[in-house]
Amino acid sequence: xxxxxxxxxxxxxxxxxxxxxDLRTEPLYFxxxxxxxxxxxxxxxxxxxDGKLFSLHVHCDNRIEKAQTHxxxxxxxxxxxxxxxxxxxxxxFIPDVKNSLVKGFFIRDKSTTDLSEDVLKTLQQSKSVxxxxxxxxxxxxxxxxxxxxxxxxxxxxxxxxPAAAAEHHPSTLNIRNSDVFYNMDEAYKVLKECTDIIPxxxxxxxxxxxxxxxxxxxxxPVIVIEGLDxxxxxxxxxxxxESLNATLLKSPPQCLAPFRQRFDSEPPLIRRAFxxxxxxxxxxxxxxxxxxxxxxxxxxxxxxxxxxxxTAVGGRVENLPEPGSELYKWPEDLLKPNLxxxxxxxxxxxxxxxxxxxxxxxIEEAELEVNxxxxxxxxxxxxxxxxxxxxxxxxxxxxxxxxQQVQHLxxxxxxx
Length: 416
What we know:
With 416 residues, the chain is α/β, with parallel strands linked by helices. The chain has helices at 2-6, 9-12, 42-47, 63-80, 115-123, 184-193, 200-210, 233-243, 257-264, 268-289, 301-312, 347-357, 363-370, 372-384, 399-414, and strands at residues 16-19, 28-33, 52-58, 85-93, 102-109, 129-137, 140-145, 158-162, 222-227, 247-250, 295-298, 339-344, 391-394. It has an eight-stranded antiparallel β-barrel. Strand 4 and strand 5 form a beta hairpin. The protein is elongated and about 75 Å long.
């Protein structure tokens, strides 16, 4: 079987495992070794005597199947396991090898039942899923393949060995053209692979094909307004449209509105490809409209990339790709705006505005309300994107004061 080939002893020992055990710190890293290794500190907390331990890994040559399987398993674990089970994001990877990351979960079961083991054995019936159990003996812990239902396999004992932290968070190995797309063709290919299972993909690709021309000459300035939800983007963009006699566009474009609910329910790979293509459709509209008037854009590639990177990278802000990383580089085939403004308000003010609005939010926007770490990562990712970089605007004052501040920035540069 594929899983047996991929997870045979030799390859397992070449991989590093990472568990997001405490989101306030970096992941806990370990490798496997045939020689017993003494565990200490955080490793004792994770692999201690309290409960049964398992890890589950999703791998498949078909990236669409792999993404969907991972999402389905995440949902199954959330509803099938008891409240006495802790589920942590986990992965294995080969250091410094791009696209080597295999995503999964680490399960710590403190219950007295066999429910978690039964659930995991059922999940392991999929050819894309491999499950390991962990056994302890004194200060040592080892990993074994969890035997499938009605099958007994010879155990290969591989001991947990603490490993040094990776230079970069392991999720960064797989971000390029998986969580963030850096050219249209890569995003297009993802939806092309989905046409048999997601009929709406064909309609989206048809819209993209109709809007392939994105080049423009020396037209009017293009100004993008970015920021978290409830920072005043809609109010400001409408005011700028009127004051500058400009065209107002939004990303994703209105033509994709009928498909957003469908793609929002898909795994990150598919959802990100959908929104990436939305940027290229918006770029085509910008190219046409900027020949006639200034163009104001409510969100663009900065939002797509910032949210995707913050979601893909677990834990704290320090886990993000370092400033200057290629992952913050603007796509070469995507039209560049002349000016990008990032609206910011205090967390308290933003939450107040959200409560006052009381409207539906995306999953990621809802998470911003309850997850301070996620909010901080999104804001920092915004600030690290370069060429073009964001100019930060304090959007806490009244809408009229914010408008005057932004008008001053625009007029100083373009004399509009």
